[in-house]
Amino acid sequence: MRIENTFGIAAEAREVITYDSEEALLEALIRIHNQYEGLPLLHIGQGSNLLFLSNFEGVVLKSNIKGFTTKEETEDDVLVEVGSGEICDDFIAQAIQNGWYGMENLSLIPGQIGAAAVQNIGAYGVEAQDVIEEVKGISLKDGSTRFWKQKDCQYGYRQSVFKSELWGQYAITRVTFRLKKHFEPKLQYGGLVKAVEEKGLTKDTLTAEQLRQIIIDIRRAKLPDPKEQGNAGSFFKNPVVSREKAEQLLSEYPTMPHYPADEGKVKLAAGWLIEQAGWKGKSLGPAAVHDRQALVLVNKGGASGSDIQRLCEAIQKDINERFGIKLEPEVNFI
Ligand code: EPU
After folding, report:
1. Do strands 283-284 and 287-289 pair parallel, antiparallel, or not at all (unpaired)?
2. Atom 40, ligand 1: which residue's CA is nearest?
3. Cα(162) to centroid of ligand 1, in Å?
4. Which residues of 274-307 are buried (b: 16+ CB within 10 A; e: fewer)?
5. Is 221 left (phi over 0), alpha (psi -120 to 50) or beta?
6. Does the beta carbon of 294 lie inside 6 Å of ligand 1?
7. Would you tell me how many other CB atoms lie within 10 Å of the CB of residue 36?
8. How far is ligand 1, taken at its centre, from the CA of residue 270, in Å?
9. How far is the CA of 34 from the centre of ligand 1 (A)?
10. By three-state DSSP, how is residue 307 classified?
11. Residue 190: pLDDT above 90?
12. Average pLDDT of the residues of the chain
């Protein structure tokens, strides 16, 4: 059975099982235990952060748990529990319509709500961890239910407990968000204030719908649509380096973008490093570096996972030789 993924890479599994409720997931787990004992299990979302290097000799699980319910509401905020199979961007659009704010900057990120909580998706100065209150999961091993409060999710930059020590152990079934009932635009990210002003708007006149549209326009201008050209968004994480390392590079490249990170460290822009190294728009067989955002690798048509991997490794080697920086993929290799 074919496994859907936004890279458009052909990959098969023994079976792909989609469940639309927690009960259906429990039934599926029993069937998997009886029918496929000993085979590996892989839980995916929309496949927007996966690179298949070969077929998957096991069973793939996918959530189609839809819908959302309000759990608690005060004058200032609302707790909304969302099914993990809900498309993230659809939920953001509905939330804004309902007057629930905080996720506007995450507009148009591909993927499902469950994956957003696993990956701690982020864009334009907001990360999923800023709005997540609680995550609910079901153990793939014994079907038991578990809840994690936000502070127990070990969130970091594109990192969580679900991606590290609990990887492969739980299906996320629901995510509860704490959203604001008063709109406060977050415009700290470079370029956002300018984009707002270019529309003749100010921080005070801007509505959440307008901010969502601005974010959507910026993304569309830079990032390829996976429906048109296979890709997984940013292929690499932005590297976080010591202050000494950043200063050494800045003395050589004074215009290099850099941002403060945790523990006095400095985050660099992988896209900038890759562009400086001359890779932007370059191809290696059917795999290429996107011509408008060098952090994105694309399938020009018919690429295999290994084609993309070869390009990834060539870039990693070059960036390491030129800048002494080891780029780490954000995409999960399967
Ligand atoms: N840059 C270049 N050349 C490029 C790409 C970027 O010089 O080809 C420079 C830009 O000019 C800018 C800096 O690098 O000075 C940062 O670029 P950008 O604002 O486009 O963001 P990014 O760091 O490349 C990150 C996220 C994106 C997210 C944007 C906006 C990661 C790995 N990527 O990209 O997330 O949309 O910021 O917040 O953190 C994703 O994870 O799939 C993704 C698209």
Report:
1. antiparallel
2. 234
3. 24
4. bbbbebbebebebbbbbeebbbbbbbeeebbbeb
5. alpha
6. yes
7. 15
8. 8
9. 45
10. helix
11. no
12. 96
Q: Strand order in 230-234's β-sheet?
A: 230-234, 296-299, 287-289, 283-284
Chain-centroid distance of CA 55 in Å reads 23
Structure confidence by residue, pLDDT tens digits, 295-321: 999 999 999 999 999 999 999 999 999
Class of 230-333 in CATH:
alpha beta
Q: Is the CB of 49 under 6 A from ligand 1?
A: no
Residue closest via CA to ligand 1's atom 23 equals 269
| Phi and psi based region of residue 160 (left: phi greater than 0; alpha: psi -120 to 50; beta: remaining) | beta
Rounded to 10 degrees, the C-alpha dihedral 140/141/145/150 comes to -70
Cα 269 to its chain centre, rounded Å, is 17
280 lines ligand 1 (CB under 6 A): yes
The second-level CATH assignment, the architecture, of 68-180 is: 2-Layer Sandwich (3.30)
Tokens for 219, please give them. 């993304």
Residue type, 37: E
What is the residue type of 269? Answer: A
C-alpha 117 to ligand 1 mean position (Å): 20
State the distance between the two ends of the chain, measured CA to CA, in whole angstroms. Answer: 16
Domain ranges in the chain?
A: 13-63, 68-180, 230-333
Domain 13-63 has CATH 3.10.20.30: no
Q: For the chain, give the number of residues.
A: 334
Catalytic positions: 158, 234, 330
Q: Which of 178, 179, 185 is nearest to 207 (CA)?
A: 185
Measure the CA dihedral 237/242/244/245, to 10°.
Answer: -30
Asked if residue 47 has pLDDT above 90, the reply is no
| pLDDT tens by residue, 67-102 | 999 999 999 999 999 999 999 999 999 999 999 999
pLDDT band at 222 (very low <50, low <70, confident <90, very high): very high
